[in-house]
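Narrative summary of target 7.
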Amino acid sequence: MFTSAFRILSAAVVVGIALYPGAASATVLRPAVLAYSSAGSPSGSDPNTIVTFTVTTGALSLTAPATADLGSGAPGTTISGTVGPVTVTDDRAALNASWNATASSTNWTTGGGTGNETIPVGDATYTPGEITTTGTVTATGSTITLSGTTQTVVAGTDVVGNNTATWNPTVAVAVPAAAVGGAYTATLSHSVS
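Modeled conformation, tokenized:
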């Protein structure tokens, strides 16, 4: 009698263990589903901050040397030399902009600037040469015969944001065979717009 009771108790314990995992599993599933649903719903009380800042703009400018010496040569030859670095600085921070750098010159004169002491400006050429750029810009140079009227020597296109362009132009003067001796001077002017 004692043995039978022990066996029944043992069976009850085993059955109880077998049933418990099933009941526990049902209990775990319910909170897991609720947690997933809650995480997918943003709170309507979360604050938003609108953050702003300003990108400043500047000017379009050009710099060039104050003086330049092309060297020397005899009548009937061509005297040429570099002027020094000419730089366009574009700080407008613009979108789809452009600019044009121009050059013009006076006649070359010596002494009192009489007819025999003058070499016409049209006897000189201006060649920009290699152009170095920074930023986003396409800079294209053009060789010109100098005159008293401004002509484009470097054109900046496809400009986005700030940029620079620098070149060291060569000026070549065809000295007439009848030119008189002396130190000739002209004023070479640059501008950008």
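The radius of gyration is 43 Å.
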